[in-house]
Design goal:
Elements: H1 3-18, E1 31-32, E2 40-41, E3 44-48, E4 51-55, E5 60-65, E6 75-80, E7 89-95, E8 104-130, E9 133-143, E10 153-160, E11 165-189, E12 192-194, E13 196-197, H2 205-214, E14 215-217, H3 238-244, E15 249-252, H4 260-277, E16 279-287, H5 288-300, H6 305-308, H7 319-334, E17 341-346, H8 351-364, H9 366-382, H10 391-417, H11 422-447, H12 451-466, E18 473-477, H13 480-483, H14 501-509, E19 513-528, E20 536-541, H15 549-560, E21 564-568, H16 570-574, H17 580-583, E22 586-588, E23 602-604, E24 612-619
Parallel strand pairs: 15-18, 15-19, 16-17, 16-18, 19-24
Antiparallel strand pairs: 1-13, 2-3, 4-7, 5-6, 6-11, 7-11, 8-9, 8-10, 8-11, 11-12, 14-21, 19-20, 21-24, 22-23
């Protein structure tokens, strides 16, 4: 596998392990398997549900085939086009291993085809930690010695599943020139065929009773119409208030980026926070400078809600967000002396930061402007192609960005001395912050993954609060994977191994930081069709399997006679020894901007992540702006 194929494989593996979304019509209490390729993904015949390209080779494609199959409706076809490269093309299916340890796993199936040259086959393997590093623990392969285009030939591979793995992968591979079909794969546990696998230990009756009792209903997710709601309008939110307490930062997560009810509930909680809890800053997971356009609108009426929302990430360009932005503006019009701000914290696009810093230096620092421009020049021209850049180039970008930040920070006191108003002072602070935003973006690129980005977002939340009056309360909106506290002693039991934005903020602010996860049991969400097809669609999310907290909360809705619940986890946090069953790492749902498939590929100790869970039993996709 070449360097680029390896990177692609690791990216896809991450997507599989963090993936989201559902097999159509799946109402299973376990993880369904799709080894016969009968269920289709949101991409239709292009990809069977649950199967993801894990290694890419140019001029090689895969798809479901309804014309040649051993049984059922579809087989899986992999074929080369003209001049295929020699690198492996692979599709992989993730199987949750945690409840099938120490058992013999066998995968059997059939293949047919015609290869002019090369090889094809099936592989099963486990991944986990080895000597402190991510590694392949076991691998068994069944290669196809001779393909026949008209006759199906058997495949089989077995291994004894150890208890150290976190992932079991079934992979179909192809290298060469020709065409191959796969069909009727089956997974056996100790010789018995199973159509699904358990994902976590089921809750006992006593444990379920505690969840039923601890969970408290709230009335609705719908935001209030108007800007001056009375306390009665926020009926049943006293449990939310109790968890928040005196915390300065209230972080609201979400297990998907495309759920209408999550967006509406956050709008309602922002209204409650502003009118009942004194929240005066709303912080969104989006590029910091782009969100400033929204801030200028809500504070000063510059533009319209419809124009300023267009700069946000696509997942936020939704009718629910538009309504929230307009509400903040309406509130500020009625409370001009005590306004609410709408700001950002993310740093994925450095363009505005580079331009803004240059514009400031043109006026205030002409002597250093060209020097700064030269340091940023190569990064400015090439950052969009950073994926293909050598590590040495990224390290050079990082060194130069650190120099710029040190230079601008060193001039800050001089510039502040000439400031005649708070507005002038903020321009100086923004210049320093813009230099840091560029540095943060480079560090996120250089380190890869989420670690650098989450550290930057935590720093930017800090920066926002540092430049507001003492005691200002803020509400933060981001994914569950970002807002979590990450306080489990075992790193792998945390989101991002305890290096999330929320983990940084929890370390600094302690109980002044409250994290709320937003979970759901079933329904729909909105996302793009794939990582290459950015068409927006509403697609089904996987019904939460037995052993997940989502599924237990679904059962709790029946005893509470409410589809909306809040589960306070602080009692468990204070006495882990009495609640060991709740701290067992359990699968959690993840969906980013793409309609994935299964969505429960990572497991975490939930009370170490969140102070409370806000649960909505059934959800729908966020709404496009008309």
């Amino acid at each position: 596998m070449n360097h680029n194929s390896l990177r692609y494989f690791l990216l896809q593996m991450m997507c599989v392990l963090l993936g989201a979304m559902a097999m159509p019509g799946a109402l299973s209490a376990q993880q369904k398997l799709n080894l016969g390729f009968e269920a289709l993904s949101t991409e239709g015949m292009q990809r069977p549900w649950g199967w993801n390209v894990s290694a890419y080779a140019s001029n090689v494609t895969s798809s479901c085939d309804a014309t040649f199959k051993k049984s059922g409706e579809h087989s899986l076809r992999i074929e080369s086009g003209p001049k295929p490269d020699t690198f492996l093309y692979e599709l992989s299916f993730f199987v949750e291993p945690s409840q099938i340890f120490n058992r013999t796993v066998t995968v059997q199936g059939y293949s047919a085809g015609n290869l002019k040259e090369g090889e094809a086959g099936m592989r099963i393997e486990t991944y986990g930690e080895k000597n402190g590093a991510y590694a392949t623990l076991q691998r068994k392969t069944s290669s196809i010695a001779k393909l026949d285009a008209t006759h199906w030939q058997p495949l089989s591979a077995s291994l004894k599943l150890g208890d150290q793995c976190h992932s079991l992968m079934i992979t179909l591979f192809f290298r060469g020139d020709g065409k191959v079909w796969f069909d009727d794969l089956e997974l056996k546990l100790d010789g018995r065929v199973v159509p699904s696998v358990p994902v976590a230990p089921a809750f006992t009756q006593a444990q379920q009773k505690w969840i039923n009792t601890q969970a408290q209903p709230f009335r609705t997710v719908e935001p209030h119409q108007g800007v001056n709601a009375s306390g009665k309008e926020f009926n049943k939110l006293e449990h939310f208030k109790a968890v928040v307490g005196d915390a300065r930062i209230i972080a609201l997560g979400e297990s998907t980026h495309g759920t209408s009810e999550f967006f509406k509930l956050k709008h309602r909680l922002l209204q409650y926070g502003v009118q009942e809890l004194g929240v005066r800053v709303f912080i969104l997971e989006d590029n910091q400078l782009r969100v400033e356009r929204i801030n200028r609108f809500v504070l000063h009426g510059q533009g319209t809600a419809e124009t300023v929302i267009k700069g946000l990430f696509a997942v936020w360009n939704r009718a629910e967000m538009l309504s929230m932005i307009q509400w903040v503006r309406d509130y500020n019009l009625e409370h001009p002396d005590d306004p609410v701000e709408f700001v950002g914290m993310d740093v994925q696009d450095p363009t505005l930061a580079l331009d803004s810093l240059d514009g400031f230096l043109k006026v205030k620092g002409p002597a250093v402007r060209q020097r700064v421009a030269r340091q940023h020049e190569h990064f400015r021209k090439n950052w969009r192609n950073a994926f293909s850049m050598e590590d040495s180039v990224k390290e050079s970008w990082s060194r130069k960005a650190r120099r710029v930040y040190k230079l601008v920070k060193g001039l800050e006191t001089k510039w502040l001395a000439t400031a005649k108003s708070r507005r002038d002072s903020m321009r100086v602070y923004w210049a320093t912050q813009n230099a840091r935003l560029v540095q943060q973006c480079i560090e996120s690129i250089r380190t890869g993954g989420f670690e650098g980005r989450d550290k930057a977002m935590a720093e930017n939340v800090d920066w926002v609060l540092e430049h507001r009056p003492a005691g200002t309360r803020a509400m933060v909106w981001a994914h569950d994977f970002h807002v979590n506290r990450g306080e489990a002693a075992v790193a792998k039991h945390n989101y991002f191994e305890g290096k999330s934005m929320g983990s940084h903020l929890a370390k600094k602010y302690g109980e002044d930081y409250r994290a709320f996860g937003l979970f759901t049991y079933q329904g729909q969400a909105r996302g793009t069709v794939s990582y290459s097809d950015f068409s927006s669609v509403e697609c089904g999310i996987y019904t939460s399997p037995e052993g997940t907290l989502d599924q237990a909360l679904h059962l709790a809705t029946k005893s509470n006679r409410s589809k909306n619940l809040i589960l306070d986890l602080r009692e468990a946090q204070k006495s882990e020894s009495d609640f060991q069953w709740l701290f067992i790492p359990r699968p959690v749902r993840y969906m980013g901007y793409v309609c994935e498939d299964y969505g429960f590929g990572s497991r975490h100790a939930i009370p170490h992540q969140f102070d409370a869970i806000l649960f909505i039993d059934e959800t729908t996709g966020s709404q496009l702006i008309k």
